[in-house]
Q: What sequence folds into this?
């Protein structure tokens, strides 16, 4: 018996694969520019990104084999495994750049909080799917999904990785449109959220994290220290003009004025070299990919598949939106890479896992 039904292969989603391939190709060319050496050779970051791309592509294809509908039965196991990894990270991970978020073994490094976003989506999709008959119309109906989201977010906060914690919370919020609670009741949620933010500011955020938020409000308060990244990013974006300075010709990146230019500010490098026109093309590719993901959700043959696809689109939309806003000075610098574009093995692996699951839902949309 074949591992994949022939009908699924015939319905393979080449549109989604094409959009993802274009984004990956542009991202790799941009990474080469951001990390190129004087002799023109491949930087170590480029080699590691290519390795992660190879492993991620295998992982993406592997998740196509098993029908996504089996994930509904395995959702609690997947979620429990992700929580266990987050707890393990707190127990064994060293503190790196102020956060305890990476598990290292020799040259291997992985960030379990990235994987937790996928597990959260699977768990929430299962819960909302099983509540479809009764609906979610009362505040008490949010208790279970709130707890499902709060556990990984809380563990990531304990790891002191506030950027990923916020991202994980926003991924959970992707499912808010499926909740039919009256608008007045959301005032309670808003009040609780404000209280939580005050608590984070007073007791959880480190001094450098508070500085990043204050720099967002007033970028000129410390232009040579905590505000340096945001200012240099805006200079790079603005100097690109309409058509940019050309590949490998960006002064901010080639002269290394732009910190973390291959990770958090990769889009700044691209904006300087390709200008507004190039940025519009890349953002158009992202918009097309995300809308296509929503089309997959709309055309899914079952409710769980639709919910799963919506959540997976959220795992790609939120980091892309935050990263671009961060680069343009519209959001604080919180260390969120641009999916499929910025350097980062863990983020790339999880993004390709999300794409693989979206392909899984799309391939089986004509099967009952």
A:
């Amino acid at each position: 018996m074949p591992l994949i039904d022939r009908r699924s292969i015939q319905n393979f989603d080449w549109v989604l694969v094409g959009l993802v391939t274009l984004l990956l190709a542009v991202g790799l060319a941009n990474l080469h520019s951001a990390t190129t050496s004087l002799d023109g050779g491949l930087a170590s970051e480029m080699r590691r990104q290519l390795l992660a791309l190879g492993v991620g592509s295998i992982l993406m294809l592997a998740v196509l084999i098993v029908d996504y509908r089996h994930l509904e039965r395995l959702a609690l196991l997947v979620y429990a495994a992700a929580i266990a990894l987050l707890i393990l990270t707190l127990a064994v991970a060293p503190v790196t750049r102020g956060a305890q978020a990476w598990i290292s073994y020799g040259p291997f490094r992985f960030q379990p909080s990235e994987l937790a976003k996928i597990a959260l989506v699977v768990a929430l999709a299962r819960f909302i799917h099983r509540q479809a008959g009764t609906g979610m119309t009362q505040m008490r109906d949010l208790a279970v999904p709130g707890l499902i989201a709060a556990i990984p977010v809380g563990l990531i906060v304990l790891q002191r990785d506030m950027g990923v914690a916020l991202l994980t919370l926003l991924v959970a919020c992707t499912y808010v449109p499926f909740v039919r609670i009256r608008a007045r009741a959301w005032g309670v949620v808003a009040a609780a959220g404000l209280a939580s933010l005050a608590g984070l500011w007073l007791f959880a955020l480190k001094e450098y994290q508070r500085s990043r938020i204050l720099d967002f409000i007033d970028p000129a308060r410390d232009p040579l220290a905590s505000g340096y990244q945001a200012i240099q990013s805006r200079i790079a974006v603005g100097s690109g003009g309409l058509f940019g300075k050309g590949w490998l010709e960006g002064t901010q990146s080639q002269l290394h004025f732009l910190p973390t230019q291959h990770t958090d500010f990769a889009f700044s490098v691209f904006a300087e070299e390709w200008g507004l026109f190039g940025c519009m093309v890349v953002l158009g590719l992202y918009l097309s990919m995300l809308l296509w993901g929503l089309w997959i959700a709309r055309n899914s043959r079952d409710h769980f598949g639709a919910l799963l696809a919506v959540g997976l689109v959220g795992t790609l939309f939120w980091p892309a939106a935050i990263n671009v806003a961060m680069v343009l000075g519209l959001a604080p610098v919180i260390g969120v890479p641009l999916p499929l574009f910025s350097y980062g093995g863990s983020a790339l692996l999880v993004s390709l896992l999300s794409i693989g699951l979206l392909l899984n839902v799309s391939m089986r949309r004509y099967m009952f």
